[in-house]
Amino acid sequence: SGASLAQVGVTAQKTMRLLPASGKKATQKVVVGDQDGVVTCFGIKKGEAVPVFKTLPGQKISRLELGGALNTPQEKIFVAIGSEVRGFTKRGKQFLSFETNLTESIKAMYISGADLFLCASYIYNHYCDCKDQHYFLSGDKINDVLCLPVDKVNCITPVLACQDRVLRVLQGSDLLYEVEVPGPPTVLALSNGNGGDSGEEIVYGTSDGKLGLTQITGTKAIPKWEIGNEKKRGGILCIDSFDILGDGVKQLLVGRDDGMIEIYNFENAEDPILKHDYALSESIASIQGGCVGKDGYDEILAATYSGWLTGLTTEPVHREGGSGEELKLSQEMQSKISSLRNELEQLQIKVLQEREKYQQCSLSSTAVSSVPAFSVNDKFTLNKDDASYSLILEVQTAIDNVLVQSDVPLDLLDVDKNSAVVSFSSCDSEPNSNFLLATYRCQANTTRLELKVRSIEGQYGTLQAYVTPRIQPKTCQVHQYQIKPLSLHQRTHSIDQDRPMNTLILKGQFSFAEIHSWVVFCLPEVPEKTPTGECITFYFQNTFLGTQLESTYRKGEGYFKSDNISTISILKDVLSKEATKRKINLNISYDVNEESVRHTLKLIHPKLEYQQLLAKKVHLIDALRELQVHEGNVDFLLPKYRSILEEADQLLEEYKRQPAHLERLYGMITDLFIDKFKFKGTNVKTKVPLLLEILDGCDQDGLIAFFDAA
């Protein structure tokens, strides 16, 4: 692994910076803020951390930025703690304590000269010399903020990265325009550290691992490049620009929540190319390029979730048959490692002594049990590629086991990176009880666990994860995640208006806030706060089938349009249930488009054929392998059977990854069939066995004819 330089408490995103080098010495000091509220500043000498200053603990630090007068070294340290901003000199003397008027904790902060930009959930505030200047209420949660360099663009242009896949560009207290990006943006950075030649270029990273560069002009955004997440890596938490390769052009340094550090190079000055990557075992909260350890040696410094600071240097390594630069450990680090080993042995002896002391104390009559607190960083998100949910649990110490329990049917899917041993427990068939009980036992030193589940639309409830770390005395935390009725839907910027659509219309004595809360209950990715204005429209796409949904509502009325009649059916059932709970009378009407059912069947059919073929091939593998052993060769087999044998491992792997895929498709087609006739007032449940026979036959025309004739 990389060379660990020091450890502080658990750190949040963007809380570690390198101070500019001062005087003749070119090495830089590291400053980091942690969730114990401590700001630590240190230098590195001979691979060892040498402290400069350390503040007293307090509330957790959510952001750390450097500032100073424009065009001077940015060496003043600013931290966001709750709703307060504190300033420290590089020597650790506090010179500012600014209690803002924000009612919530600060989530994002940016500093430019005398201008301070703060965001808390949906609220943006701009202060100049600690005096209130501008205010903006965003339509969805704000994840990050920056301002284009004032000396280049000659005006203050703040940019907000918002959860609804939009960058909002402001002027004063007003929205100038919105920029659609391919995923929920989690982090913003000025391109090249200065906004590029124009000062208008910003780089964004998204929670689903995409990167992009866009130019923010005074009137519109001009997208420059975008990199998808082909390798299915983690979400992006931090970005820096630094010339680590020493070729005169700054590279893009990227840190992800799965522990990946990446270096992108601009070889043809246009699109960046991934040049190097390096994997750590926990999420990268902050990343910086600079000269820390040795004069003249540049390195990349990363701060991880649990507070480790790791330095990576690039030194050329010439290998047999391989070439190019690699990230490697220096000599200095190796001697440091042996001194750490000695230190570790001493600590282990001390731990044993303390544990014995604790055991003795706990037996005494005055003993008080103490439950150790531990921090869990979790992320529950829908993946567009395979319509599954990823649950990522990261704990500040090693995980012993995680028990996963759900009161709705869920399929657990395979995760390659997961080394934990999973065991399932049988569940009672009672209503309102468990549908899933699984225990993941982690290997030693696992601090991060990733699980994948797929839900079934229309079945909603709660998934719970009981996390037990390897600490004494044994303690456990439970985390809950809502599985919503339309759980496989994801927000999108627009939909195809030419598809055949079914419409559901709701009217009644309900407020805008009430209908909004029902939509939040039904669908993922809807901001919890009631939108400003009188009316709102959201667009969604079903990640499994590619069908779509448009929802428009205001006080007293709601319109829901979808090309999938089952989506409309689920909404009708859930919304009327929610309204009944609140004793609100709903007037429900709908307009069903017959053509839409055929259209949805045509969307499902290729997936159905593919999965049926996969299942058939997998069932043949054993028999074909036996023939192969028996006959000694497979030359006599038809080419299609030979290719099954050649691809056997990939086929089995794919089948294992998606265990209940075919069942789910059968279920969706059955629901579509029942829903089509439900809206006509006919119950066709008795015809379902016949439908399943037709499905086994896998004939699209026969299937459509059955739907039409029933």
UniProtKB/TrEMBL annotation:
Residues 594-707 form the BBS7 helical hairpin domain. The keyword Coiled coil applies. Residues 330-357 form a coiled coil. GO terms for cellular component: axoneme; BBSome; ciliary basal body; membrane; neuron projection. Residues 372-481 form the BBS7 GAE domain. Residues 16-314 form the BBS7 beta-propeller domain. InterPro entries: Bardet-Biedl_syndrome_7_prot, BBS7_GAE_dom, BBS7_hairpin, BBS7_pf_dom, Beta-prop_BBS7, WD40_repeat_dom_sf. Keywords: Coiled coil. Pfam families: BBS7_GAE (PF23360), BBS7_hp (PF23349), BBS7_pf (PF23361), Beta-prop_BBS7 (PF23743). GO terms for biological process: intracellular protein localization; non-motile cilium assembly. Residues 489-591 form the BBS7 platform domain. This is BBS7 protein.
